[in-house]
Automatic annotation (TrEMBL), chain B:
InterPro entries recorded: SusD-like_N, SusD_RagB_dom, TPR-like_helical_dom_sf
Domain SusD-like N-terminal span(s) in chain numbering: 77-234
Alphabetic keyword roster: Cell outer membrane, Membrane, Signal
Annotated protein name in UniProt: RagB/SusD family nutrient uptake outer membrane protein
Pfam family, one: SusD_RagB
Domain of life: Bacteria
Family to which the UniProt record says this protein belongs: Belongs to the SusD family.
Predominant place of localization: membrane
GO cellular component, one term: cell outer membrane
Domain RagB/SusD: residue ranges: 388-511
Length: 995, 511
């Protein structure tokens, strides 16, 4: 090292020596973007006061003092450049924006130029995120990155419903969620939801070993790296104000319209259940006599079909010579599709970077957020589990005969007949509001004591408070004058310190090296408590202490985990043609057993830029061509904080005395889940028309962290262990076509595609198969995660009884030969041939523009997706749920005259069962995002000098869905859906004004 | 180099600080324990773990543990609003399979409790008390653990095995797990072996609890409770002489258990949990319901609420919206003068079903309406203190045992004592009158299945009360349900989950 440095200084000295005499030179400064001359650029001889400005042709003349020949050229909005003076030289300046665009995140250390990174990374720019109508920027990533599978499992406002995985499910037990990093600080998808999507400059998806292994223990599922906007040095302040207003509604109303109306339902009951004594007379006695003769559309009553959504934000970006800044604030409001549900968010951000000295850079980057939300817990969201409530998730079953209004036309507070509370009244008397204050940010200092050596230290935090106040007012009749008040408080943080040292050097201008070393410490803390009391007797006195002391209840829980890591990386390239990189990382984690805390992960990768080879010089149509290969290991530690530790815990007190029991057996041998990842790829650009990126990957997971099942007779049903192996293989394709490009028009088409093939290669306890009880899902060695379920064989035309296929001797083979009419879930379960995880995910976008008009349409699709529609068990099962509403399709039932019916004879005690008739094909394609914009021409704005730009946008989300799925929403990312709110759709009109 | 030596030093210091940071993190809401070490190191540990046994025992009562028994038999009809709660076991049709949750819970909750009992028995044996009183305390606690384990195995064998009889040495019951072992995959023991183990545990309990005198409503096991459990054991294995003897021992205990003989006393007993009938009555308070989730999705709320589901609104005020109402057979088994009928059944409480006010048209079962002091809202919530053993059952065991033993006179005396106390007409002691008295006296306690199995009987039909046509599920699968004595469903299915993880288990026939 020392020897090399000396060499470096020697070569500098030689350069200086060459220009000892005073000389006058001329040159031209041009914009690299368009080749146009830059007028008024400052040219300065470094180390002197000597300077000059360029003329209208970009030309300058300058006299170099003796011994000086280094020039610094700078101009507002462009990156300053230092060059060695030479007569007649042409100096190209890069605009700041372009400079930013061309940097790619690689995880720790400084960014890399596009096209020089060995790792597989895909970046989604702010344009895709900025006007998306969703609270979370992550929602807009659906269909944008090959291999990044994004599903939004509910349409509830304020639900962090986006689930993501990269290249399939990497573990059957531990989380498959990628590592989220915001400006270098490990974070979470919930924190990204607490950010204004407009604050985000880019989201980079790191996919292969070269890109991810440097993140070691948490990188097995890939990395989503969020970079927020920063201002630009030497740029004029730019103020942007955006506003959007629109409607939020359920994407699939047709589902509810497929339920019977009152007259259809009455007729159906008589037709289908006459044998049970359901006659017109019976119905009159049961319903008409009590005044139940309405035709209420309960879905209109229980849901909001025209909820309001607004979003506004303002940002100011700019910078001077030493400081650049981005200050922003935003507001987001969305009323949900269920009564009482809303989400409100306010954010403020300050990103300030300074370069006070040539050798010193500092910066602070802070996002404050305040959001509040209220759910309607009668419906399920993405993580609430099932919601089989007639007031919500199963409200399609509500009998339309029951009235909404009394005889005077007033709406009931509680509807007679179904005893359902008026949802508005109910939510008003049961407020349950979550407030979340969040802070995510970091501060860094970077020192360059010698050129190209960067020592950086960064501390950051992702912390938040969540406070929930929930109440039942004593005035609520169901409370019998006795209210309830509960309050919970949650304080969580994840603190990170990262120290890195990076040195870039080259040898003989051909061998380019970057060496990085570093360490990182992370501490995660979760701290929660709640208190509750009952017996408040006045709506205005709803404090905890207003309840009865005898009802006081409270609970506390807290957990903590720590990670400590050391890492290093070496990047090398020869003539920017042959690239090699290697990384290594050692992690220790408190979650594992004492002897198994440390693990080392590594990667190696190579890239060959073939297009730079001489033998391709003649092929002008090959603009760029690269071949990449990388291999490496990563880990996964996404389990509970104390899974390794055996624990004696407390049970409910007995006679007011503490009770203990052995509540968790622990596993002292617990350690990391490990992954080996190989990626081979080809990318490039051809005919100056098509960009392509194709890669093939093999992920092999071993020592999976799984809850291994044990018999109830042992007293513990599950212990977390390192077991089994899993493999995901697949291919990613990204294609981009510049179909049209002209002076004032363009048309681009982009498509991404991922095929992933999952295979379980080993399970636990030597098993070849494990069926997870009551889920319909089975792990089978040699196969992907499959649905194992009784296979429905339709209705026997002879007698109207439902039938099922009898499994063969080997239930791993789908066997549809003999049938039975006796239903026994356990005995009839067999391989349905349907995969739990869809193998194909993709999307395509069309973007075009003509003059000020622009249009962008983003479609995403998932193929081979299956979902157990548990809702249908209720809305297509009138024999079990007589006198509830039912799907119109149920009228097609077996009778001696209608032997070719969809459903069995409803009397004779035939009911629908949990079998493959519920396992529906939930493949879908969605118009995820449609945006039409119009940029007002500059000349229309020319009469004034405040507004620089004005753009009007129309935005829609989930406007169009194609699917064969019969339930509410095919997008739910689960094996089974019951009572969940379907995805929403939005129509927004907006304006973007720049000053 | 000097310039950046300084920074490197800072960096190095930073790294050093973190390297030396302690990676050990221990939970705060529990105590870490390494398998194999002594769990009980002092008397305080012992007391808290012992109290954990009390809670474990409490979780094995009421809720689905007793409700499933009742609704499988002939005493109750599902209502139009029952929402498929206990649907499979009530219809006992093809949907009643090894995937059934209610039968699984009986299995899982008991084995969860047995794990706690086993660990305690294992570790208390190694405990050295600091003095004689600590040692004596540990002995009693050991006796309690054995008593509890016997109670759990009795519940299990009664549901998953065939009734005790000639083939019990080969009939399969449940696995006998007597020591905690995470890797063990036990096979099912025979009915005889399980009963032998129950007796062995009760023998230990009888010795160690000999000095713990009975008292009305004892919150922890007493010698009377041991005898009450022994009485159940003896009547099951058809050792009638011993059954009668131990049952009478409890009846005549110095503790003074007494049947309620007036409506006020019935009210004190069954509404306020302040009566004289319980041999044990477990702890509970407004703040301490004892409800516990023992496994993922396996939870017992310890309330028998399916008969009432009391709620409240402006239109009706407080009203019942039960999932199950008593059958015609149950209601008509009582005479109008019977205190039990007067106290436990009512047609006066507002009852709304299927959206219609059906008050007065039929009787509801309100034995577990709820203790007014165990609700904070004023709305009865079906919470009552748990009564594992009531003195009435001892009269029935004594009468049945004497009758089967040919001592009809003695049987009549005991039976009449019960009938007289309850305001029922006195009858001869016959198979029919004794069995009817079981039905009337213990309804709701979750003993009905065992009675049918022990008697070798079934039931024929489950007609709804007159006037309840609009309230109940009226199809034949519900009201027409019959079960013969040899119906295979009397032996509950081994849970499907258990069969999957433990290949040494075999399923009961017919599932």
């Amino acid at each position: 090292m020392k020897k090399r440095l000396t060499l470096f200084f020697v070569s500098l000295f030689l350069c200086v020596g060459a220009a000892l005499a005073q000389t006058k030179i001329t040159g031209t400064v041009l914009s690299q973007d368009d080749g146009q001359p830059i007028i008024g650029a400052a040219v300065q001889v470094i180390g002197t006061q000597t300077g000059s400005l360029t003329d209208v042709n970009g030309k300058f003349t300058i006299t170099l003092p003796a011994g000086k020949n280094a020039l610094k050229v700078s101009y507002l909005g462009f990156e300053p450049k230092e060059v060695i003076a030479k007569n007649g030289m042409r100096i190209f300046l890069k605009s700041d924006a372009a400079a930013l665009d061309e940097v790619v995140v690689v995880g720790y250390g400084s960014g890399r130029k596009v096209g020089t990174v060995v790792g597989s990374v895909t970046t989604v720019r702010s344009e895709k995120l900025s006007v998306a109508p969703s609270a979370s920027a992550l929602d807009a990533l659906q269909g944008q990155v090959a291999g990044l599978n994004v599903l939004t499992s509910s349409g509830e406002s304020g639900d962090n419903a986006v689930s993501m995985n990269i290249h399939g499910i990497g573990s059957l037990g531990a989380s498959s969620t990628p590592l989220y990093v915001i400006d270098g600080i490990p974070s979470s998808s919930r924190t990204i939801m607490a950010m204004n999507p407009n604050d985000i400059e880019s989201v980079t998806v790191l996919k292969d070993a070269s890109a991810t292994s440097i993140y070691g223990s948490r990188a097995a599922n890939g990395v989503i790296y969020v970079t927020t906007k920063s201002g630009k040095f030497n740029s004029d302040a730019k103020i942007t104000f955006r506003t959007q207003y629109g409607r939020n509604t359920l994407a699939n109303k047709g589902f509810y319209e497929g339920m019977m109306n009152a007259s259809e339902l009455r007729q159906f009951w008589i037709d289908a259940f006459g044998d049970w004594g359901v006659t017109e007379e019976y119905l009159q006695n049961r319903f008409d006599k009590n005044g139940y003769t309405a035709d209420t559309k309960w879905y209109e009553v229980l849901q909001n079909w025209n909820a309001v959504q607004t979003q506004n934000d303002i940002s100011i970006e700019g910078g001077g010579e030493k400081v650049k800044y981005m200050i922003g604030a935003s507001q987001f409001h969305q009323d949900g599709t269920t009564v009482g549900n809303y989400y409100d968010r306010y954010t403020a951000r300050a990103n300030v970077d300074g370069r006070p000295k040539d050798w010193l850079k500092v910066g602070v980057n802070v996002n404050l957020s305040y959001d509040k939300r209220q759910r309607n817990s009668n419906w399920g969201n993405s993580d609430s589990g099932n919601a089989n409530y007639l007031a919500g998730g199963l409200s399609m079953l509500q009998n339309p005969l029951y009235p909404q209004y009394d005889e005077d036309g007033n709406e009931y507070n509680r509807y007679p007949g179904n005893n359902l509370w008026n949802p508005v009244y109910y939510m008003n008397t049961h407020p349950d509001q979550y407030l979340r204050y969040g802070l995510v940010g970091n501060a860094y200092v970077e020192i360059s004591p010698i050129k190209n050596l960067k020592i950086m230290s960064r501390i950051g935090t992702d912390m938040y408070f969540v406070r929930d106040n929930w109440m039942t007012y004593p005035s609520f009749p169901g409370a019998n004058g006795s209210g309830t008040k509960g309050k919970s408080m949650d304080f969580d943080y994840s603190n990170t310190i990262t120290n890195t040292i990076e040195y870039k050097f080259n040898i003989a201008n051909e061998h380019n090296f970057t060496v990085l070393g570093g360490m990182e410490g992370v501490e995660n803390n979760y701290d929660y408590f709640y208190a509750r009391s009952n017996g408040q007797d006045d709506d205005r006195l709803m404090n905890l202490q207003n309840g009865l002391q005898s009802t006081y209840a409270m609970s506390e829980s807290s957990t903590k985990s720590k990670f400590l890591s050391f890492f290093g990386r070496l990047d090398y390239n020869f003539q920017e043609k042959y690239f090699v990189d290697a990384s290594i990382r050692n992690d220790a984690c408190s979650r594992f057993g004492v002897n198994n805390r440390n693990a080392t992960f590594w990667s190696a990768g190579a890239m060959w830029k073939i297009s730079k080879e001489n033998f391709l010089k003649d092929y002008k149509w090959v603009n760029d061509l690269n071949v990449k290969v990388s291999y490496g290991t990563q880990g996964n530690a996404s389990i509970g904080d104390y899974a390794a530790i055996g624990r004696i815990g407390t049970l409910s007190k007995y006679n007011d005395s503490p009770t203990w029991a052995y509540t968790s057996p622990g596993n002292p041998n617990l350690t990391w889940e490990k992954q080996k990842l190989l990626t081979i790829g080809v990318s490039g650009r051809l005919f100056n028309f098509m960009d392509f990126d194709v890669s093939y990957y093999v992920r092999k997971t071993s020592d999976m962290l799984m809850g291994v099942p044990y018999a109830y007779t042992t007293g513990f049903e599950e212990i977390t262990e390192n077991v089994g192996t899993l493999q995901n293989k697949g291919i990613d394709i990204e294609l981009n076509f510049n179909i049209l490009k002209g002076k004032d028009y363009y048309l681009n088409f982009r498509t991404i595609f991922n095929y992933n093939s999952q295979k379980i290669t080993e399970l636990f306890q030597g098993r070849d198969r494990w069926q997870i009880a009551n889920t319909g899902v089975a792990y089978v060695v040699g196969s992907p995660v499959m649905f194992y379920y009784p296979v429905y064989a339709g209705v026997d035309p002879a007698d109207g009884a439902p039938m099922w296929y009898v499994p063969g001797n080997n239930i791993d083979e789908n066997h549809e030969v003999e049938t039975t009419k006796d239903f026994d879930e356990a005995a009839l379960e067999q391989n349905t041939g349907k995969k739990r995880y869809p193998p194909i995910n993709g999307g395509f976008s069309i973007t075009g523009g003509w003059k000020g008009l622009s249009i962008a349409a983003d479609f995403s699709y998932v193929l081979g997706k299956y979902l157990i529609n548990n809702d249908a068990y209720f809305y297509q099962n009138p024999g079990n749920f007589l006198f509830y509403n039912t799907s119109k399709e149920c009228a097609d039932f077996w009778t001696p005259e209608n032997t070719d019916a969809k459903f069995p004879c409803w009397t004779n005690d035939h009911v629908m069962q949990f079998d493959t008739h519920l396992l529906e094909n939930a493949s879908f394609m969605r118009l995820k995002n449609l945006q039409i914009g119009y940029d007002f021409p500059k000349k229309l704005l020319g009469f004034q000098n405040v507004v620089k730009g004005l753009k009007i946008t129309l935005t829609g989300r989930n406007l169009w869905t194609i699917t064969n799925y019969g339930g509410i929403d095919p997008e739910v990312n689960s094996n089974l859906t019951l009572g969940k709110i379907g995805n929403s759709k939005q129509y927004l009109i907006g304006a973007e004004i720049t000053f | 180099m000097k310039k950046y030596n300084k920074y490197l030093l800072i960096l190095g210091l930073g790294a050093f600080t973190l390297t030396s940071c302690n990676m050990e993190e221990l939970p705060k809401t529990s105590i870490s324990y390494v398998d194999g070490k002594d769990m009980i190191t002092n008397i305080e540990d012992l007391i808290r773990l012992e109290n954990g046994l009390n809670q474990s025992y409490r979780v094995t009562h009421y809720g689905q543990i007793s409700e499933a028994d009742e609704v499988m038999c002939d005493g109750f009809n599902a209502t139009v609003d029952y929402g498929n709660n206990f649907g499979s076991i009530h219809r006992t049709d093809n949907s009643f399979s090894s995937s059934d949750y209610d039968t699984r819970d009986m299995w899982a909750i008991n084995y969860w409790a047995i794990k706690n009992y086993n660990l305690f028995i294992e570790h208390v044996a190694k405990f050295q008390g600091a003095d004689a009183s600590e040692q004596a305390y540990a002995d009693v606690a050991d006796g309690e653990a054995h008593f509890y384990r016997a109670a759990s195995y009795l519940q299990l064998v009664r549901h998953f095995g065939k009734a005790y009889g000639a083939s019990s040495t080969s009939d399969l019951a449940v696995p006998l797990v007597l020591k905690y072992d995470q890797q063990e995959k036990p096979a099912r023991a025979t009915v005889a072996a399980v009963y032998e183990q129950i007796k062995a545990d009760l023998d230990v309990a009888a010795t160690k609890l000999a000095g713990v005198k009975g008292e009305i409503g004892a919150m922890t096991p007493t010698i009377d409770a041991v005898n009450a459990l022994l009485a159940r054991y003896y009547i099951d294995i058809k050792d009638y002489a011993n059954a009668a003897t131990v049952a009478k021992k409890v009846i005549n205990s110095a503790a003074g258990y007494a049947l309620a003989t007036t409506l006020e006393a019935m009210d004190a007993e069954y509404s306020n949990d302040k009566g004289t009938e319980p041999i044990m009555q477990l702890a509970g308070s407004l703040a301490e319901s004892g409800a516990t989730e023992v496994f993922d999705n396996v939870e017992n709320d310890l309330v028998n609420d399916i008969y009432t589901m009391t709620t409240n609104d402006k239109t009706y005020g407080m009203y019942l919206r039960p999932y199950f109402i008593p059958s015609k057979k149950l209601v008509e088994s009582y005479e109008a003068t019977d205190l039990r009928f007067q106290a436990w059944f009512t047609n006066a409480f507002t009852c709304v079903l299927g959206g219609a006010d059906l008050t007065g048209q039929f009787y509801n079962f309100v034995k577990y309406l709820g203790n007014p002091s165990l609700t904070s809202t004023g709305i009865p919530n079906a919470r009552q203190l748990i009564k594992p053993f009531m003195i009435g059952e001892m009269y029935l065991i004594a009468a049945e045992a004497d009758f089967r033993d040919g001592k009809t006179d003695a049987a009549k005396t005991t039976l009449n004592a019960l009938q007289a106390a309850r305001g029922a007409s006195l009858t001869e002691a016959t198979e029919e009158t004794i069995e009817n008295e079981w039905f009337k006296e213990t309804v709701g306690e979750g003993l009905r299945i065992n009675c049918f199995k022990r008697w070798g009987k079934g039931f024929d039909g489950r007609a709804a009360q007159d006037g309840a046509e609009q309230a109940v599920q009226s199809s034949a699968a519900f009201v027409g349900k019959s079960m013969t004595a040899d119906d295979i469903h009397w032996q509950w299915p081994i849970p499907a989950y258990e069969l999957k993880v433990n290949e040494n288990l075999v399923q009961n026939p017919g599932y």
